[in-house]
Amino acid sequence: MDITFTDREAGVMQVLWDCGPSVVAEVRAKLDDELAYTTVLTVLRTLETKGYVGHTEEGRGHRYFAAIEQQAARKSALAHLTSKLFKGSAELLFAHLVSDRKLGADEIARMRKLLADSAKDKS
């Protein structure tokens, strides 16, 4: 499944993943941008049309929930990024991440462990 979000949709999805099922006003209050109620409602409805969000009836309103897992969205976004900008090469992506950031010793150690564990899983 190819999962793609606009920046605004990604922000709304992050609220649902972090906070769980929420009404429009709750989502709106947690967003970084000050958006109109109707704008947040439109984004939620768009996400629902795409199949990324669902809702349950709650009084006269709706309580929206993420219909996809955050990990699935991350995996799809990373595959898209790798394909489009790094010629499908995870090695190029990794090299760019490592060379472009000032990584701390702890972060490097965790990355080395992930690589070692991945190599063990492959053999």
Automatic annotation (TrEMBL):
UniProt keyword list: DNA-binding, Transcription, Transcription regulation
Domain of life where this protein originates: Bacteria
A GO term, aspect molecular function: DNA binding
InterPro entries registered for this protein in UniProt: BlaI_family, WH-like_DNA-bd_sf, WH_DNA-bd_sf
Any matching Pfam family: Penicillinase_R
GO biological process: negative regulation of DNA-templated transcription
Family per similarity comment: Belongs to the BlaI transcriptional regulatory family.
Protein name: BlaI/MecI/CopY family transcriptional regulator
